[in-house]
Design a protein that fits this description.
Elements (H helix, E strand, L loop, with lengths): L1 H9 L4 H21 L2 H4 L5 E3 L2 H4 L4 H5 L4 H8 L12 E3 L21 E3 L4 E3 L8 H5 L8 H27 L1 H19 L5 H28 L6 H25 L3 H9 L1 H8 L7 H6 L3 H14 L10 E10 L24 H25 L2 H18 L8 H29 L5 H23 L8 H17 L39 E10 L5
Antiparallel strand pairs: 1-4, 2-3, 5-6
Helix pairs in contact: 2-10, 2-11, 8-9, 8-10, 8-19, 9-10, 9-12, 9-13, 10-19, 11-16, 11-18, 16-17, 16-18, 17-18, 17-20
Length: 538
């Protein structure tokens, strides 16, 4: 395609592209910390009811009589089925008979209990403070945590719906800069909120910005990279998410207070906002939307940065009008499972779990890069999703006692989802034309986030049947993987710029070959076609 040839002339993988990759992927690493932040800021610490004998200063007289904290806890809090203190109930009155050592001593089976009317006491050995301990989101109020997660996902979905068309209208860089600023302000304010409702509102705004950053970052990288290097560049972008997981684990290990942790991952976005004004707008988008002068300016800047001084500083642009049938290909529902059902409970050390998932994510994404270039986008996307779903479904048949095997399957499932994500960001951008790329990517993000919104709520079904969440989380990627086989192959094809370019795609892949016949549409779509003539100095 003409623009691809022009990109080769100004430098398709030079100093400019390296600078751009570094400038865009570093914020992606920090962005990942926000996506996974509530693994730590909303961690549920061990807790029990507040009881006067233990938590009131006047109880010191009893302690002086030789009764230690363990004894006072025994007479104040009933035991659960695992013989551990209840988290949500306390005795109406101290059960002193439980301190008798002989076997004939009466038990507390008939003793009256009540909810934690005076609040809770939290174990602060792992986290000094979380939003759970701040707003008592336990027992009858435990639904607030998945509600907060669903509100965050709703923010990403809303951001995808709005940021896509806005980016196609006003440009990629402008929306990206705005989202950096919005993330910085909302994330920073989130650390100082006085109540849960305001916290959810600010998290919604942060999630809105997350969608804009993810979509515009990927699109800018794709539209400034030559065809042969797109998979490589987008794999680097996807690896930014993997490094971000490990980065979050290290930061959270050092900072155990949720407010300070929230600030630590939000303040850098002020720097990203300032640095974003040095980024180049997509010349492909500028030219296609008729902003010729700005497009030429960006191309000249890239040529200078890549050392192409022997290229003339003039471009001759011939604009022709053409008409062709408008076609639309729907992207299937993206797998929203991400193996999240009970993953955090597979190992007791949440910091180790986060590092483990980040470590397994990296080789899987590298494997996806080689598979995309060898097997094609379509088979890589379908295979990754199906394998991810099968790993999660296999966990339904593994007994709880085999924790090592369960952890292995869960980690493999997460790894294959990472492979699917790597392929998805490349595939989705290659399927849609420049004039509608961000709108289409936003539509795909919206569909995916519908599942993400339901994800935390589906986990609550485990209260009725522990296997039910895993079955749902595993079935969705399998169905999505099968649906992906219906998509056209885009391996080694140039990015489509106009809707007329879409019929050039086919369902051919290196292993399977079948033409894609697009149904005729009732209306036509007129679009400027750009012919570039770039000549060297004579």
């Amino acid at each position: 395609m003409a623009f691809a040839e022009l990109l080769e002339q100004v430098g398709s993988l030079g100093r400019f592209q390296i600078f751009q990759i570094v400038s865009l992927v570093i914020p992606i690493m920090c962005l990942t910390t926000h996506n996974l932040l509530e693994n730590f800021t909303a961690a549920i610490p061990p807790h029990r009811c507040w009881v006067p004998l233990l938590d009131n200063a006047s109880a010191s007289a009893l302690v002086a009589r030789g009764l230690g904290p363990d004894a006072l806890l025994r007479v104040s809090i009933p035991l659960d089925k695992h013989q551990k203190p209840e988290s949500c109930r306390r005795f109406l009155h101290p059960q002193w008979q439980l301190l008798e050592l002989n076997e004939s001593a009466p038990n507390a089976s008939g003793a009256g209990t009540e909810p934690c009317l005076d609040g809770w006491v939290y174990d602060r050995s792992d986290f000094t403070s979380t939003i759970v301990s701040k707003w008592d989101m336990v027992c009858d109020w435990q639904f607030l945590k998945p509600m907060a997660q669903s509100i965050y996902m709703a923010g990403i979905m809303t951001g995808a719906v709005i940021c896509g068309p806005v980016s196609d209208r006003f440009g990629r860089r402008l929306v990206l800069s705005w989202c950096y600023l919005q993330m910085a302000i909302s994330g920073t304010c989130c650390a100082a909120v006085p109540n849960f409702s305001l916290y959810c509102c600010l998290r919604f705004l942060s999630a809105f910005a997350v969608a804009g950053i993810m979509m515009n970052t990927g699109t800018l990288l794709m539209e400034w990279t030559k065809t042969q290097a797109r998979a490589r560049v987008m794999t680097i972008n996807a690896l930014g998410f993997s490094f971000g997981q490990a980065l979050l684990s290290g930061i959270a290990y050092a900072i155990r207070d949720w407010c300070i942790l929230q600030l630590a991952v939000s303040l850098p976005f002020f720097l990203f906002f300032l640095s974003s004004w040095w980024l180049a707008e997509s010349a492909r988008w500028l030219i296609i939307t008729g902003k010729m002068d700005r497009g030429l300016h960006e191309l000249k800047k890239v040529a200078r940065m890549n050392g192409k001084k022997d290229i003339r500083d003039t471009l001759t642009i011939e604009v022709r009008s053409g008409a062709g049938p408008m076609s639309w290909t729907s992207f299937p529902v993206r797998a929203a499972a991400w193996g999240r059902a009970g993953v955090g409970n597979l190992l007791s050390d949440i910091f180790l779990v986060q590092v483990l998932f980040g470590a397994i994510d990296m080789p899987n994404k590298m494997g996806a890069f080689f598979a995309m270039n060898r097997l094609g986008r379509r088979l890589t996307q379908a295979g990754s999703l199906i394998l991810a779903g099968l790993c999660i479904l296999a966990n339904t048949m593994v007994p709880q006692e085999l924790q090592t095997l369960r952890t292995t399957l869960a980690v493999l499932g997460i790894g294959f989802v990472g492979s699917a994500f790597t392929c998805l960001v490349v595939y989705c951008s290659e399927l849609f034309p420049t004039v509608l790329r961000m709108t289409a990517v936003g539509g795909g993000q919206t569909t995916a986030r519908l599942g993400s919104i339901l994800g935390p709520l589906v986990r609550l079904l485990g209260q009725f049947n522990p296997l039910l969440p895993l079955i749902i989380y595993g079935a969705v990627p399998v169905v999505s993987g099968l649906a992906a086989l219906l998509l056209p192959e885009t391996l080694n094809l140039p990015l489509p710029d106009t809707i007329q370019d879409i019929p050039n795609l086919s369902t051919k892949s290196p292993l399977l070959s079948s033409p894609l016949s697009l149904p005729p549409q009732p209306r036509a779509f007129s679009m400027h076609r750009i012919l570039w003539i770039w000549s060297e100095r004579t």
